[in-house]
Amino acid sequence: MTINLTLKADDYLIYQLYTASTSKESRKKRLKSWLTITGLSFLTALSFYIADDVFLYYYALFVGVISLFFYPLYQRVWYKKFYKKHVLKNYEYRFDKESLINIHHDYIEIKDVMYEGKLFTSEIERINEIGTHYFIQFKVGQSLIIPKQQVKPAFLDEILSIFQNPVIVVQKQLEWKWK
Q1: Which terminus of the chain has a lower count of CB atoms within 10 Å, N or C?
Q2: Cα–Cα distance between 21 and 143 in angstroms, integer?
Q3: Distance between CA 27 and CA 31 in Å, rounded?
Q4: Strands 143-147 and 133-138, how do they pair?
């Protein structure tokens, strides 16, 4: 099976956001920063309450309540902006360049502007499917990004029949959205 792909900045951005949202370390880091900001605001409010400074107590309490509810929204926007800059800085030379992917039983051959090589199908860890993309993740940490609009609807069934590897995990998250 041969696939011609042309990836855009949004494809790389969606992959980065998906990876961040499914990474345990990233989720823990986001939760920790949210709880730290909120907790420090409430501790500051408590210290002002003990010091009988009513105005600063209410101000810090207000900041704590606002951060409790709105910091996750702010954080989501901030992370998206960060990953967008990262993609533009590190992958811009790959945007709108054609890649040729040949899928065989034992290996996947990839040819693009910067890279030409083979990845063995025995090294595939999992295939993640979201509403707009397939991400074929390898054990070495690399992933293939395949937009659904550039392949046939039966793409997943075709590649699974080609690989004939029962160890490959297919993870479907068709309703995934960046949160």
Answers
A1: C
A2: 16
A3: 6
A4: antiparallel
Paired tokens of 36: 């730290």
Phi, psi torsion values for 93, nearest 5 degrees: -70, -10
* pLDDT score recorded for residue 153: 84
**120: CB partners within 8 A, 6+ apart:** 106, 107, 108
The sign of the torsion formed by the CA atoms of 28, 34, 40, 43 equals negative
In terms of Cα–Cα distance, which of 134, 117, 120, 118 is closest to 5? 134
Count of Cβ atoms closer than 10 Å to residue 89 Cβ: 8
CA proximity to 119, closest of 111, 108, 106: 108
| % of the chain residues with pLDDT over 90 | 65
Tens-place pLDDT, residues 107-149: 889 998 878 989 888 888 889 999 999 999 988 888 999 999 9
Q: Specify the pTM.
A: 0.86
pLDDT score recorded for residue 165: 67
Residue 50 has which token pair? 């003990």
Residue 73 CB neighbours (<10 A): 10
* SS3 at position 156: helix
